[in-house]
Design brief:
Keywords: 4Fe-4S, Heme, Iron, Iron-sulfur, Metal-binding, Oxidoreductase. The chain is α+β, with helices and mostly antiparallel strands. 29% of the residues lie in helices and 20% in strands. It is globular. The structure holds iron/sulfur cluster (3 copies).
């Protein structure tokens, strides 16, 4: 059988996933935070015509796959792309490419620079061997377009609004903008119900009188989430972590996962097995309460 001679594990580590068709592989290419420049897109299109079937597949995690690459062409296909700075995507027991939305560089609702956060995380952790797989997502605001709650480590931009009462004229624009019913105008002054507020900042954007400002901008962190056969919602940690806290928690989470996990165990299962208290103690964090 020809299959017995194929080193599937080595191919997978380079991003080649065996197809149901014999001798065919889907070449997964790494895309960080969903952005690719035009030159790289053209090179990938050329590779799809030369080595694949003339099309690409965009995965649910913002990666590009070129299906129908023959085994004998695999090495040449990826080498050509690597020369242009395009590398194979991670598969198997590795840290996957970071998924991110456009954040505050493009989106009107963005509160943090998702692209920059994703770039830093990617440089530090992409492709690292882990007990199972580890997925990270960065989303720019509580609309959560890239679903950070479904990732092993999810990051979501947040902002805490502050009312400057002396500027408030009671116009209710903030009340209309808030989809959570968290801000009300009472006796001609805005008032925020912190139990209902999800830190989205829509009220700040709506106010024309400088009566609302960002008191603090940061990130809500989710850990231990996953999609798939046994979906699990990530546990919400700090509501407004600054960059230093964020990267400290991320690094400690990696250390904890590498040190404590059984082979083949996802981060969420590890947290369940050893208890959330142990995890929180390790990363020096308390569960999310208000913000
Ligand atoms: S999560 Fe927020 S910032 Fe990101 S794309 Fe969605 S609405 Fe825009
Ligand atoms: S939009 Fe601004 S000025 Fe108008 S009620 Fe809200 S806080 Fe006050
Ligand atoms: S930050 Fe968002 S949820 Fe909170 S009061 Fe403003 S609009 Fe409402």
């Amino acid at each position: 059988m020809a299959d017995k001679k194929i080193d599937f594990s080595s191919l997978k580590s380079k991003g080649f996933l065996p197809q149901r068709q014999e001798n065919m592989f889907s070449m997964r290419l790494k895309v960080v935070s969903g952005n690719l420049d035009a030159e790289k897109l053209r090179a990938i299109a050329d590779a799809a015509e030369k080595y694949g079937s003339g099309y690409v597949h965009i995965t649910s995690r913002q990666q590009i796959e070129v299906p129908f690459v023959k085994l004998e062409d695999a090495e040449a296909a990826i080498s050509e792309l690597e020369k242009l700075g395009i590398s194979g995507g991670a598969a198997g027991k590795r840290v996957r490419a970071v998924v991110a939305c456009q954040g505050d560089r493009v989106c009107r609702h963005g509160l943090v620079d998702c692209q920059e956060l994703a770039r830093i995380i990617d440089e530090k952790y992409f492709g690292e061997a882990v007990p199972k797989k580890l997925k990270i997502a960065v989303t720019g605001c509580p609309s959560a377009c890239v679903r950070p709650q479904d990732n092993d480590f999810g990051i979501m931009g947040t902002v805490r609004p502050q009312i400057l009462e002396e500027n408030c004229v009671g116009c209710k624009l903030c009340e209309k903008a808030c989809k959570m019913g968290a801000i009300k105008v009472l006796e001609n002054k805005a008032w925020i119900d912190t139990e209902k507020c999800i830190l989205c900042g829509a009220c700040i954007a709506a106010c024309r009188k400088d009566a609302l400002r960002a008191e603090k901008t940061g990130c809500t962190i989710f850990v231990g989430g996953r999609a798939g056969r046994q979906p699990r919602q990530g546990i919400k940690l700090l509501g407004l972590a600054d960059k230093e806290q964020l990267f400290s928690i991320l690094e400690k989470t990696f250390e904890y996962y590498r040190r404590e996990s059984l082979d083949g165990e996802r981060l969420g299962d590890l947290i369940d097995r050893l208890g959330i208290e142990k995890y929180l103690d390790t990363v020096g964090c308390v569960p999310h309460t208000g913000d």
